[in-house]
Every structure is written in structure tokens, then in C-alpha cells.
Write a structure and sequence with these properties.
elongated; single chain; Immunoglobulin-like
């Protein structure tokens, strides 16, 4: 844009000057090694990333990083656009992290943008053991990820806590964990579930006749009224559910097979012939 100055009455001198309107720099993040994740602690990733303005690839100006909460290198900030870290080093720690890149060009125009980094915990190994009816899961991962139970090589139930689904049926069980950095498969254990977890060591929770022809009676104590009654097939799939409103309930229509009946945390095995 050109502006011409003149005095009133066309007297005096005149001159011309130019006004340039600069645009704000737009920050671009890039990776040289290690990608943009996901990363897991101790997965031996060596990450190199950086920042540069979109419209100023020559980087004419100055920029610096601010690593929030000191997540990178123990709080040391970096005045260069290139940043490196290793997941095997002390820093960074596991968690969600943010770094802000500030840039000022030669005309004094300033801009900033935020890069977010997530470091997951090392999933380690996944192991299960079964002692009686107690299932123990051993892993560095405690929650927040998806688990899937397998019986004799077939998926039977999914859960977000690993032990949320009762082990119903008999055979070789193993557990699969879907983690952002890896898919873990546990060891296989043989488990025979007879469904004989008696209520208060007595026979107040009864199913008869057993074996059955598909019609049977469920008898429960008063303290279990209002609880859910569930029937699972031999693969652990829920096929029936109702709320118990009476001490005795008549159930019919089950085809031949092996079933597991559950009221609250108590289970029974039912054979239909």
C-alpha cells in the first residue's frame, strides 16, 4: 500500500512510503524418527520431533519449546526446533504430556502451538492362574484397556477389568489384552467349573430336578429376593436374565446342554437332557 502526503493548497513537499502487513506464522510439527506414537515406556523407541512455521521454511526468526510440567528431560526447555527423547530413559515418565512451541519471525510477529505426547505404561507380560474358583491376573496393566476371555481357543466374553466375567464352563482358558502398544496373550490354564459355590454353606439355593428335561424349579432364600437371576451356556454367554420376586421360580424351554445358573455371586450347574 502506498500513501502520498501533501500540504493544503498543493504547497510543500511530498513523499511515498510503503506499509507491509505480515501474516502470523503457522506452526507445523514434524517427526524425524519414532513417529507420533503411541509409545510405551521401555519399548526402546528413540523419538525425534520438531517444529517449523508453515510459511517460513527457512525458519527466519527464533523459536523455543516450553515442556509443560517439566515432562521432558526433567524440566529442561529447548531453544532449538528439534527435540529428542528415548522411552528407555528416566524421562519422560508415563502419562499425558504437552509441549508448547513459541516462534517469532524477523518482523516481530509471534505464534505458538501445542504438541501433545502420550507415554503408556509398559504392558509387560500377561499371566493368569486359577486356584479353586479364584482367578488371578498378573500384568503391569491394571485397568482402562480391553480384555477378552477364550475357552478352548474360542472367544467367550469381553471385559474392561480382566476378571469381570465369571469363568463358566470347563476347558482351557486364556486371556487376551488389547493394549495401544501391543496385544498380550496370557498362558493357558485348565479350569473345571462345577458351579458348586454354596450359599452360607447350606442348600437354600436349590435347582431341581437336576438333571432336567428343560423344565426346573429355582428356590432361593428371602434375602436374595430382588437379585438378578442369570443363566449362562457352557461358553459363558448370557442367555436368560430376570429379577427374582418370589422364593420359587419355574423355568422351562431350555434345550439340551450344560448351563450355569447364577444368583448374586452364587452359581449352580444344570444339565438338561
Amino acid at each position: 500500500m502506498k500513501v502520498v502526503l501533501d500540504s493544503a493548497g498543493f504547497c510543500g513537499d511530498r513523499d511515498t512510503f510503503s506499509i507491509t502487513v505480515d501474516t502470523l506464522p503457522k506452526i507445523s510439527f514434524f517427526t524425524i524418527a519414532g513417529g507420533f506414537g503411541p509409545w510405551c515406556k521401555n519399548d526402546s523407541s528413540n523419538v525425534i520431533f520438531g517444529a517449523t512455521p508453515y510459511d517460513n521454511p527457512a525458519n527466519s526468526g527464533s523459536g523455543n519449546w516450553l515442556h509443560l510440567n517439566g515432562w521432558l528431560n526433567g524440566g529442561v526447555n529447548n531453544t532449538t526446533p528439534i527435540v529428542t527423547f528415548s522411552t528407555s530413559a528416566l524421562f519422560p515418565k508415563v502419562g499425558n504430556h504437552s509441549s508448547v512451541y513459541f516462534f517469532e519471525d524477523l518482523n516481530g510477529c509471534k505464534s505458538q502451538d501445542t504438541l501433545r505426547v502420550q507415554i503408556f505404561d509398559d504392558p509387560g507380560k500377561l499371566n493368569i492362574s486359577i486356584n479353586g474358583k479364584q482367578v488371578s491376573v498378573f500384568s503391569n496393566i491394571t485397568d482402562g484397556y480391553w480384555y477378552e476371555w477364550y475357552l478352548n481357543g474360542n472367544p467367550i466374553a469381553s471385559s474392561q477389568d480382566g476378571i469381570g466375567q465369571p469363568l463358566l464352563g470347563s476347558g482351557d482358558f486364556h486371556l487376551k489384552l488389547y493394549h495401544p502398544c501391543d496385544t498380550l496373550i496370557s498362558n493357558s490354564v485348565y479350569f473345571e467349573n462345577l458351579g458348586l459355590n454354596f450359599l452360607n454353606n447350606n442348600d437354600e439355593f436349590q435347582v431341581y430336578p437336576n438333571p432336567s428335561n428343560g423344565q426346573f424349579t429355582l428356590s432361593v432364600p428371602q434375602e436374595l429376593l430382588g437379585q438378578k437371576f442369570q443363566i449362562f451356556n457352557q461358553f459363558g454367554q448370557l442367555i436368560w436374565e430376570q429379577v427374582l420376586n418370589h422364593p420359587q421360580s419355574e423355568i422351562n424351554g431350555l434345550p439340551a446342554g450344560v448351563y450355569f445358573l447364577q444368583v448374586d455371586s452364587e452359581r449352580r450347574k444344570l444339565v438338561v437332557r
